[in-house]
Structures are given as C-alpha cells and as structure tokens.
Amino acid sequence: MNENERKAFAGYVFEGFHLKPSPPPHELTEFLTSDANLFETIHMGAPKVDESAWILAIDGLVRKPLRLSLADLKTLPYKEVTSFHECYGSPLKPATSPVHRVGNVTWTGVPLDVLLNLAGLEKDAQFIWSEGLDRGSYGGQAIDRYQKDIPLEKALSTEVLVAYAMNGMPLSINRGGPARLVVPGYFGTNSTKWLCKISAQRDRPQSPFTTVWYNETVGESGSTVTRPVWEATPHSIITSPGDQSTVQSGPVNLNGWAWAGQPVSKVEVSVDDGASWIEADVKPRHQFEWQRFQVLVNLPNGSHRIACRATDINGLTQPLSGSRNEVNRIQVIAK
C-alpha cells in the first residue's frame, strides 16, 4: 500500500496521552477562547511533522485522487467558521459524569466539500474517513493511526473545513498543525488532528476509535441502539457568578454559554436546585458559535444552588443528572 502521505511523520514531540483541562467556567467569559484557555486532548502523543514533506491525500471512491501540499491547500478558496469546540470526554469510562471541556474559536481553512468536489465523488460513497499522522498506544492497544469518519451528508456541509489556522494564527503542533479536520457541531474527537488523508468510502472504518471507543448506547423507540459520538448534545455553563462566590443579595445578573450541534432555542435557570425554572434570554446562532444567555434573578440572603439547562431546536434538553452533559450547578452565597 502506497502511504507516502505518512512520510511527514518525523518522530514525536511527546508520546502518550495528554490532557490540558478547560479552566473553570467563570474564566471562560470571552466570546472567543484563547489558545491558553482552550483544552487539549491528545490520545497517543503529538507527532513531529515535516511540513516540507506534508501531503494531504484524497482517495477512495473518487474519480480523481488528489495529493496536495500545504502550499497547494492554501491556494484554494478558504473561509472562516466560528464554532464551539467540545471534548466528549474519556471513551474509556461511562459517560455518566459531567464534562466541561469546551471553548469557542474561529477556524480558517478550505471547505471539505471544495476538496471532495475537486476529487469527484463516486455515487457509492457514504462516509468520509480521516486519518491523522499520530500513532502509538491508547487504552491498552497499539494503534498505527488515528482514524475517524463522518457521514457524507455532514462532510458536504459547507462549515466542515480542512483548517490551517485558529483565531487567526497557524495551527500549532498541539492544535493538530499544519492542518486538521474541523467538524463544527460535532464532538472534537471527529476533528482529526495532523490530518494526512481523506478517503471516500462505502462503509465505516474498522478503527478502534470508531468500533471500540466513541460510541454511546441510547434508547430509541422502545429499544436500545449504539450510535457513533458525532453530533454534540445540548450543554451549558454558568460563567457569572462563579461557583462558591459571594454576591450582594437582591437582583443578580446571571450569564453563561450554551451550545449544541443544533442551535439552542431555550435556556432555563433555576435558583432553587431545580424546583422551578426561569427562562433566560438567548442570543441567536449565526454559524456554530456558543450562544450567550443571561437572566436577572432575585437572590435573598442565604445559600443558593443555581443550575442551567439548554434545549435545542429539536426539543432535546440537558438531563438533570447521570450524564456527561448534565445541567451545570453552582453554589452562591447572597449577603
């Protein structure tokens, strides 16, 4: 098998799993998340990439396979997409505990549909596979490449990019540079870093990152089904006031962010730990950015358990407990 696109691998910057968590929600007040405040999840270590040898191969069920250098990629039409970027959480344990690894950034890159149209998709293509240059060990398995897939319908959506910049700066190694896949509205695991190959295929790949990990079991129509971790479910965080903070009693302005694969249509806030809910004002979504919500609440003297929950345009709502996207709760003292 000719895999010249993998020759850009030049060793490791570091090996093994790496996690830089998000800061606490009260530090995520800016609309755009800085590189310093954006979480990092790296499964098998960060590869050194020889940019002079870097090639993006586009093959599979296409009429005209492509091999593009970084310079070639940057000559093509590009766009900017602002999107929330969210980590699903560890696939090695049940998704029953809250995960708040999220940020909001602007990506710059070539729309994937432009590349697929240049290559000419065959009619049998149903999934678009992506491969990264990273390799190593994860979950007790030796793995020769990070490999993911997305359905063709999503791949052809104009927001999906082969990105080479974030917040106006070239992608660093820890961000997946020199180029990565970005799939707005989907969990970050689908946005393959250190991208080297795009392949149009009829079926899903047999990668442990698609067959063993990053799947969830859900109830549908009276039965349970296993589905890929693709589109992000509704989630929200309170950014002000901060957890364990003290505020002046009386009217308090409560702010936060909400996001989901589909636009968030409603955010509710509770100041009595879920006994009652107040609807907040929510800014509309323009691309895939997180959405600001705010509401004025009355807090008499004492301790208050405050929660928020988001609902998307399809009526999907954050669960109260027992899930990675359960409602965000904070404790506030009013004096």
From TrEMBL:
GO terms for biological process: sulfur compound metabolic process. SUPFAM superfamilies: E set domains, Oxidoreductase molybdopterin-binding domain. It holds the Pfam family Oxidored_molyb. GO terms for molecular function: heme binding; molybdenum ion binding; molybdopterin cofactor binding; sulfite oxidase activity. Residues 43-207 form the Oxidoreductase molybdopterin-binding domain. Its cofactor is Mo-molybdopterin. InterPro entries: Ig_E-set, MoCF_OxRdtse_dimer, Mopterin_OxRdtase_euk, OxRdtase_Mopterin-bd_dom, OxRdtase_Mopterin-bd_sf. Residues 230-324 form the Moybdenum cofactor oxidoreductase dimerisation domain. Keywords: Metal-binding, Molybdenum, Oxidoreductase. This is Molybdenum-binding oxidoreductase. It comes from Noviherbaspirillum saxi.
